[in-house]
Every structure is written in structure tokens, then in C-alpha cells.
Q: What sequence folds into this?
């Protein structure tokens, strides 16, 4: 992703398109499908590619973080109930 951004000269910072993280599941599915199938390629539309990659990446890692918090909370609550 960085190599794509290095070659872009934007008048508007890319963060305006990537922040806040996307929370629309239908749009995230479209981004994901376009990236996985190769429909969206950095050389065809580098800005959209970076935006899609950023949002899908943020979503995946936010889900992982939420699962870790849930796991920790559940384990902590279960451990306390045993005492």
C-alpha cells in the first residue's frame, strides 16, 4: 500500500477517504470482493485501491481486537465465578 501512495500526488490527504473506518457491511463486502477477485488493481485506480484496502484492513483487525476483548472478558468473568 505504501508503494502505491508514494507515487500518488494528491491535493487532498488520503486520510480524508480512509478515516473514519467504514462500517457499512455491504460496502465492505464489495471492497473485499473487488480486492480478492482482482477486479480492483492499484495500477487501474490507485486511490480506490488504497481506500478499499485500508477499510477492509481496518475492519478485519477491529474484529480481531473485539474478539480478543470478548475472550479476555469472558475468561476473566469465568475465573472470578470459580472463586
A:
Amino acid at each position: 500500500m505504501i508503494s502505491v501512495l508514494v507515487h500518488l500526488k494528491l491535493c487532498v490527504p488520503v486520510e480524508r477517504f480512509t478515516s473514519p473506518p467504514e462500517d457499512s457491511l455491504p460496502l465492505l463486502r464489495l471492497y473485499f470482493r473487488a480486492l480478492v477477485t482482482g477486479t480492483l488493481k492499484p495500477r487501474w485506480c490507485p486511490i480506490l485501491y488504497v481506500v478499499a484496502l485500508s477499510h477492509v484492513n481496518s475492519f478485519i483487525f477491529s474484529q480481531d481486537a473485539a474478539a480478543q476483548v470478548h475472550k479476555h472478558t469472558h475468561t476473566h468473568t469465568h475465573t472470578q465465578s470459580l472463586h
